[in-house]
Amino acid sequence: MWVEKYRPRRTSEMVGNEEARIAVSIWLEKWKPRSKPMLIVGPPGTGKTTLVTLLAGESGLNMVALNASDVRTKEKLGRRIGEATKTVSLFGGRTLIFLDEVDGLLGRSDYGGVEFIKDAVKETMNPIIMAANDPDADEIKKLGAACTTVRFRAPPPREVELYLRMIAREEDFEVSDEELRRCVKTAGGDLRQAINSLQSRGGDGARSYKDVSLGIAQGLNAFFEAPDAVSAVDALRQTALQPIEKVREIQKSVLKAELPPETLARALETLSRADMLMGKIMRTQQWRLLRYLDGMLAQELLPLLRGSNVRYIGTGDLPFPVLLRIWNDSKKVKELSRRYAAAGHTGAGSARTQDLPYIFSLCSDAEFREKLETTLDLDETFDKFLQKEAGR
Amino acid sequence: MKILVGGWFTLPRLGTDAFSAMMKQGVVYDKKLGFKLDSATDMELAVRTISSALGEEVELTVRCFICGDEACPGCPYIEVCDRRKVSPLCLCEKHAPEKGAYALYQKTFEDSAGASARRTAR
After folding, report:
1. Which residues of B touch A29 (CB under 8 A)?
2. Which of A74, A185, A193, A361 has the highest Cβ tally under 10 A?
3. Global confidence as pTM
């Protein structure tokens, strides 16, 4: 894969975010114990992780990297990086501590991860760099106030083209200006996708993930009507949508179609697994796993939809009654977790993720339901909701 | 109004609220030179603030990383490039990708990084 072959090996080989790259590099060079930590914010795929990895190598530092979406509790964070924050090597060598995707850690006060970071930052003997995706999240803004913050953005299209031209030259591959610009435009600022798109035109026979030639409606309807899994995968790969959007649009189409309840449940379960796979890809940045996404949709979802009336209808949102049901349910779940957390001396987040599923299944028992409603002081609208959830 | 990212520009008096919003959004202010949008600025919000305070459209334009000239004129991506969302340095017509500027781009980066490090050391 050209994406791997032409992965930058030095910070000067990257494109885009020039000032930001220089700022992070100078910060690392000038770092002293008790300096402010560095917070890099920017959308996924803009080179935050790549920059930190390359900087560690160029500065001769060891690196301890941790994806904060995976390790959230104070204890686990302490086990993984606690020592690294407090120690230097026998000869004074330092370790760069990199906490990626700290968005996942914030807003989870019940896990204690944020407190751990605040303490670690005060005591650290080693430089800490954090990366986050959403600069506008309140928690990130608060964290940013205690850090040296640098923003990362997508590289401008002309710099993406510059990189593609370098690859084409190295590969001795002749490509027209028009075709090259098409690769850049369809990638929407994502260098990785632009390289894949270029490779697909490189004649090595492999169709890239983003070899776009079908519109959204055309591509998704070709997927729903595909006679076999191979044609379905082909249709998906040619659809002009980001992978995560494909899952969302397919889900919307499935919800809009009138499927028998059991088929609908199985289809949504498959889509949920696809969504989890996407989540894993985003968290771990293992983009090679994308190849399994289309396969999963074609081999597991499509057989369920055969003979049904599922079609891509448009980019409109879900029908209003469905949206209304979703909003109402989510309001109820939120309120229930808040009351349960207060009564059970636990966090609302852990009540929602860990306890409520069990509570819901116990609610099939009318006596238990009644006791719960009395304890948590729930009105009669909750009774209907609890019955519905128990019946699932 | 056209604003060159990284360059100083002046604005008429916009009022305290607009000024304080711009400061929060990372707009740089110097009494003598005026205002500046740079890589630390939240471009989307800053453009929205300036545009609503002035009551006119604000168009961003970026500089060439290699020579510092304005980069947008003649760019084939002008229609699809959202300058509020991309990193604020680009390449001008003179250093366009088709002219094989990658080596020069890398060299400029190394020189700028070295120069910035020396400046900070002083």
Report:
1. 117, 120
2. A193
3. 0.62
